[in-house]
Write a structure and sequence with these properties.
With 208 residues, this protein is of the alpha+beta class. The protein has a single domain, classed as Muramoyl-pentapeptide Carboxypeptidase, domain 2 (2-Layer Sandwich), CATH 3.30.1380.10. 36% of the residues lie in helices and 7% in strands. The protein contains 7 helices and 4 strands; from the N terminus they run ααααβααβαββ. It has helices at 2-7, 14-32, 85-88, 92-107, 121-135, 138-141, 164-173; strands at residues 113-116, 159-162, 179-181, 189-192. Strands 1-2-4-3 form a 4-stranded antiparallel beta sheet. It is globular. Bound molecules: zinc ion (ZN). Residues 39-40, 153, 158, 160, 186, 189 line the site of zinc ion. The site of zinc ion has 7 residues, from loops.
Length: 208
């Protein structure tokens, strides 16, 4: 419809424009749906995919592996590395909570790193395609990798933290900062899920 209007050099009619606006709103709402039971196989699997598989979504047609601009983080990334898109594009409240936790655990002698923070949709699509190749079907893959439309990393509302002693520390003390492990099968995945000093909600367990 829009293409026809453009081709004929006509401006969309008012009902036409309303339809376009409604479509855009619909797309935005769909993109915000964010309930996931699975996220990714492990922090170490979050590296760039090497094969350029065909994607059903938009944004990966240009090929090439995900880059720093997609949220790929180098080893030893701190929550204070706000020059990196994967940290910079986190929800500010989440980033601040992780920074406070990092400062506190450093005093306890633990060096934490952000393995993954924000991820672009393209990056999440790559992870999903990789998981489909590994586990044979999208249904199986979704036990390990969130759908790009559902991942809380894509919206900037989740962080993956390593190494294991940092995860243990966060599981014991993270709620002081509002940080909770939210997926029962991912000890490294944290979200802002309670008020500082509050109680973490029950974790989500992926359906088998
Ligand atoms: Zn995660």
């Amino acid at each position: 419809m829009l293409i026809n209007h453009l081709r004929r050099g006509r401006r969309p009619t008012v009902p036409g424009r309303l339809a376009i606006v409604a479509t855009v709103i619909g797309l935005v709402l769909t993109g915000c749906t964010a309930v996931s039971g699975a996220d990714e196989t492990s922090p170490s699997s979050a590296g760039p995919a090497s094969r350029s598989g065909r994607s059903s979504g938009s944004g990966s047609a240009q090929g090439g592996p995900p880059s720093a601009a997609d949220g790929v983080l180098p080893d030893h990334t701190s929550a204070y590395d706000t020059d990196l898109p994967g940290v910079a594009k986190l929800d500010p409240a989440l980033r601040e909570a992780v920074q406070r936790a990092e400062t506190a655990m450093t005093k306890d002698g633990i060096t934490m790193q952000v393995t993954t923070g924000w991820r672009s949709k393209k990056y999440q699509e790559e992870l999903m395609e990789k998981a489909i190749r590994k586990y044979g079907s999208k249904k199986n893959a979704k036990e390990y990798v969130a759908d790009p439309d559902e991942s809380h990393h894509v919206t900037g509302h989740a962080v993956d933290i390593g190494p294991t002693d940092a995860d243990d520390w966060l599981n014991r003390h993270g709620s002081r900062y509002g940080l909770c492990q939210t997926l029962s099968n991912e000890i490294w995945h944290f979200e802002l899920a309670t008020t500082p000093g509050g109680t973490c909600p029950p974790m989500t367990t992926p359906k088998k």
